[in-house]
Amino acid sequence: MTAAPTTSKRPRVLIVEDDMMSRTLLMSALKKEGYEFAVARNGQEAIDLYSQEFFPIIITDWLMPEMDGLELCRLIRSMKIDRYIYIIVLTGQNSKTDLVKGLEAGADEYMVKPIHQAELRVRLKGACRILELETSLKKNMAEIREISIRDRLTGIFNRVYMDHHLSQEIIRSSRYHHSLSVLMCDLDHFKVINDTYGHLAGDDVLRACVDHISASFRQGVDWLARYGGEEFVVVLPETDLTGALHVAERMRVRIASTPVNFAGCEIEITASFGSVTVIPNFNGQVRYMEQVLNVADTCLYQAKNSGRNRIVSAEM
What we know:
The chain is α/β, with parallel strands linked by helices. The protein has two domains: 13-144, Response regulator (Rossmann fold), CATH 3.40.50; 159-315, Reverse transcriptase/Diguanylate cyclase domain (Alpha-Beta Plaits, 2-Layer Sandwich). The chain contains ten helices and twelve strands. It has helices at 20-33, 43-50, 69-78, 96-105, 117-148, 159-176, 190-197, 199-214, 241-257, 289-305, and strands spanning 13-16, 37-40, 57-61, 86-91, 109-112, 180-187, 223-226, 231-237, 260-262, 265-267, 271-278, 311-315. A five-stranded parallel beta sheet has the order 2-1-3-4-5, with helices on both faces. The protein has a five-stranded mixed beta sheet with strand order 7-8-6-11-12, sandwiched between helices. A two-stranded antiparallel sheet has the order 9-10. Helix 10 links the parallel strand 11 and strand 12 (311-315). Mean pLDDT is 91; it is low at 3-8.
């Protein structure tokens, strides 16, 4: 394997060529165009190298020992890779039959030897455009997905995300016999806040409460979703009843002790919590998301009825 010095940010190229003269010409051409590269002398060596490093662009000769260029193309296209690989096949034969064979094997481009610098430059520019389009498309898809699972007002996860991922958390808890706790939080007298100060003030209150809740749990482990208008669900993996009560109390105190300033007015808020802890069992009993949420909702209802600004818990 031979590698060029790291001098550019262009896609890294893998040259697969057994002929020393052709290999040297390709290396020289790529250096002139500012591309980083590595070199393999046949298809098998290329696969071995590829297992260690990802190459967005491959330039491979057709005729090689051990594994030729078309076999290499087919093998790469059969791999489960989440990024696109642009493949250029080189050959000494300039025929439509060879062109079709190369494209059918999975090649994107077909170049006839000897390689000309200007033609290679154009082919590589085309490869870069395709790879940039793929990157842009993936970015857009990721942004669309992120929007689809986020609540627009608060930025936290929405009901769609919760419905899927809470079920997965319950399954994981059962499989590995770890406790799982779920908190249901509801802001007290939220309608009065909206009626007194307006809906913009209500929006500020919701965002402030989200900040207090998020600051009270383990980042990257626990997570928060908006369940309804002023209701939130907090999921605490691998957390027992005692741990859940500590977390809920931190949230309750932060919310109650930090008024929200809106248009010069300090709006005092409190929240009630229903806490349910799913206890691991070894008898194969299956618990469903609806059951867990129903228990949490019952606890929340009891907290509301017993004076608000408090926590009621249960195990199941």
